[in-house]
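Q: Sequence in, structure out?
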Amino acid sequence: MSDMQRILDKINLLKTLYKQDDLDGLVITNNIDQFYLLGFYFYIGEAVFLLYEGELVCFTRQLYQAPLQQKYPFMRVIGQDKQMNAAAVQEIAKLGLKRIGFDAEKESYMAGSLFKASGLVETSSYISVLRQTKDAAEIAVLRDSCKIAYDTYEYIRPLIKTGMSEFEVAAEMEKYMRIRGASATSFLTIVAFGENTANPHHETSHRKLQDNEAVLLDFGCIYNGYCSDMTRSWWHGDKEPEEYTKIWTVTNKAWKAGIAAEKPGMRCQQVDAIARGIITDAGYGPYFTHRLGHGVGLEIHEEPCNDQTSSAVMKKGNVITVEPGIYLPGKFGVRLEETTVITDDGADILTRK
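A: Exactly. Output:
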């Protein structure tokens, strides 16, 4: 399938969704949603889309007008350096469109107020729904992104030595990912040593690694727009405490069980419960302080999520992390994480060779 046909198919799927709510079209201002539809990256505030039965209209900076019109001949591009939201409202009135929706969850207060005052309708996140299920082309890019992350782990682990700081390790990892083709990190790289590993979202620091301490790396990259995410934990030294060995073993068991439980038709809540139950039964329930996992795609945190509050049911094409952890304050912590894709009958780990 050509890239152009994939774009047109996404647009048609989006039309099907909003028509079910008796809408005539949508205004789309979120730059990640715009990238999902076109595969072209606008910075925040650089474009507003108006999608309706007749066509897709893009209000954007004049410097983009000619190249976009050439690249996307089906789209009408209007050069508009300022007041793009107002221009979209004016175009809606000019076209006589009656029920145009906007994504209230993703809209700024000022833009949302303008749209409501102009008679536009607050809607749910139709594009977020589409983004939950990745097609084959998206999964291929995600696989490449995850491979860069995994290769980075294999590269950095033997290089980590006593005396290195968390910042030094993070810098080396990020340089390697960029050399491999990543455009950025998926999030701020977490490198944690010693007691810092007991903080699930530790902020990487000048802390230096000492002999016989815990190490935790949580990282990922953005490759062709798509994120990866993985975590590894191990003991640095030859005097691993019995308690560290125990929590690593329990976490590993929960990690494997969570991945084994993933399949189409499975409730995300139940996947979380299976892994969480293993940690709870081992006596560490209070020390698993976050959800089992989250969706990954154009953003590092998407739906669906493996957690106890989720009502989502897994579908083929969902990409979700499995990342159980046990964190003992003041001592050390363990987290093991893979990014997985739901297949016809199970889950495939993306964060590997």
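The domain at 3-129 is CATH 3.40.350.10 (Creatine Amidinohydrolase; Chain A, domain 1).
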